[in-house]
Amino acid sequence: MTSTSPKVSPFLEPGPYTRANSLAILQLSRDNLQPVYLQPLSGDHDGYAEGAVVNTRYGSFPHSTMIGIPWGSQIRASKVDTGSRGRKRKRIAGDEATAGQPETPGSNENDAETESASRPDAASDSKKGLGEATGFIHILPPIPEIWTMSLPHRTQVVYTPDYSYVLHRLRARPGAVIIEAGAGSGSFTHAAARAIYNGYPTRAAKRKGKVISFEYHEQRYHKMKKELSDHGLEGIVHLTHRDVYKDGFLVDGKSPEADAIFLDLPAPWDALRHLSRRKPPQQSSSLSDDDGANNTDQQIKEDDSQWVSALNPKKSAYICTFSPCIEQVTKTVSALRRLGWVDIDMVEIANRKIHTVRDRVGLHLPIDRGVNCSPKDVEEAMAKLTEIEDRFREHSRPKGTGDDMDLADDEPATNGAGAMVDGGDVDGEVVPSTQAWMDGRLVTRGEPEIKTHTSYLVFAILPREWTEEDEAAAAAKYPCGAEVKVVGSIDKVSRKKERREMLEQQGGNRKARRKERDEKLA
Ligand SMILES: C[S@@+](CC[C@H](N)C(=O)[O-])C[C@H]1O[C@@H](n2cnc3c(N)ncnc32)[C@H](O)[C@@H]1O
């Protein structure tokens, strides 16, 4: 997949129509999705006269038919000229080998064979019937959920049910800065990028939402870097090639001032010491011991004048670590406790899909998948019973009386179960009364089984530091004891007491005034 980088990411601002040189997802069937970078007609396209073409089992789809159309459109397969592809290929190969020699007549047929033999999917191409308009597909915008289902896997990925919950617990919102390690296949990265997006960074000083991502594996780092560029996410995701256990989370020596952290690493506890607000303890291994909680204060009080924290000093930091086994969880929780994180808890997502289907019930329906062959209502049940009774009567009537003659002609059309057919019976074929997709009640059903375990999610919060100056500033802004009373802000008993005191005071004042007057008169 190659492309030039689009200006605005289709993940963030897809717009109403598909664009050239941008990513789109082709939906071949419900769970069969294929990412494709739409290429305009100009340029080298493997010899197809139609330009770049996507060949599928449902037919061939030239990119030119998929550019500039509304997202979600259905695209019909096209007839494509596969012949010229073979000719062009051979010419290019021939040019290299026999530069300057004239083309041998009749070489085209051999060319096609050569190309077929060299391509692993060549044999099946002829079976698939390339060049024939056979079916249709849909074109979808690349949202993170669909990308997760179709991305090229370089590692285990975080799936939508997990990352949607994680992002919610991390308070990921437009303008937030999230640290992520490791980046792996970029599944979480794309979802996080969308969650924090509040515009591309500009020269204006205003801080924009960002994903600060780290990946240790070099090949994965390079692939991910290219992918981010192709997806127009370079300004939103800052990817660094680094071992975060060793070198932490600063970017070019500066703090990214992160509001939240997501660690999908084999040993997250080894990275936690880089996520404190003060200089971390020297030995990471000391953090994974279960005892020694008393050492931490002393370790953290080490000289921290040079220390730069990766966290936002103005806000509490939210963290989530993603670990498949409980031993990793235990180690992470111990390390979090020692480093002063609070509100620590662990969650496992047990996702269950809910399918929405049409519940097709009725005796008139053809026996098919998803069809419940019982009466759909009382009327149908009564008709069925009447018919059974008629048959029973017919069966028990003495033969040869003449009453049984010509009855077959008057019999209503029935299906195999002997039930009435709504729309009649044409040559033994059942004709449903409505289109199948409209038939039946719309019902939702949960998956019968919950999918297997993915990972344990450990969450915690590191409160912001609170200094004497912060306390003084807060006291100045919200002065204690000088609040203005608000009607209804106190309970009934207190209100009564307050009124009694007020009346007593007024009574006392009246008494005093009367006494004063009496004294004057006397
Ligand atoms: C399970 S994958 C992450 C998958 C990713 N969250 C996703 O949704 O696609 C774990 C990644 O962490 C990387 N990794 C392991 N140790 C690391 C370290 N010390 N520093 C940075 N990355 C590391 C691995 O190379 C791997 O790609």
From TrEMBL:
Signal peptide: none annotated. One of its GO terms (cellular component) is tRNA (m1A) methyltransferase complex. This is tRNA (adenine(58)-N(1))-methyltransferase catalytic subunit TRM61. GO terms for biological process: tRNA methylation. One of its GO terms (molecular function) is tRNA (adenine(58)-N1)-methyltransferase activity. Catalytic subunit of tRNA (adenine-N(1)-)-methyltransferase, which catalyzes the formation of N(1)-methyladenine at position 58 (m1A58) in initiator methionyl-tRNA. Residues 78-129, 276-305, 494-522 are annotated as: Disordered.
